[in-house]
Amino acid sequence: MRKYIIFKAESMSASGWESRMLAHTQAITDILCEHYDSSDSPLPQLGDRPLEFHSIEGFSDPQFPDADTHYRAGDWEVTAVEEYPANANQSRFDVLVICYCKYAPIKTALIPAPKITAATREEQILAPA
Question: Of 17, 18, 53, 19, nearest to 35 (Cα)?
């Protein structure tokens, strides 16, 4: 199932509001993050936390110097989930999911991110369509 999942702060004035801006307009937003998910994994549940990604100096791969190197459970906790089925004829997604979150900081360890692998040109050419 193709899912578009949006994590939003419960309130525009929630912690960190000054730094949550849309990249293209610099307008303030309550959107914390978005996920595109085509897996069969379940929708987010109450109490889930979106992941927070970090790039730690000294751990980056020279081939991908700007890639995130670590992640952790974030400081935002899902408090409500709304699910909207999409119109199958006009949408790239089967469902739109909005997760409302409250700021609830926790201390969690940083976990090393999996190494990035890039397909070689030969692998791309030989890959089945």
Answer: 53
Write the DSSP symbol of residue 28: B
Q: Which of 83, 104, 102 is closest to 94 using CA atoms?
A: 83
Q: How far apart are CA 96 and CA 90, in angstroms?
A: 13
pTM exceeds cut of 0.90 = no
Using one digit for the tens of pLDDT, what is the confidence trace for 8-54?
A: 988 877 777 676 777 777 777 888 889 999 999 999 999 999 988 87
Q: What is the DSSP string of 63-95?
A: TBTTS--EEEE-SEEEEEEEEEE--TTT-S-SE
Q: Give the number of residues written for the chain.
A: 129
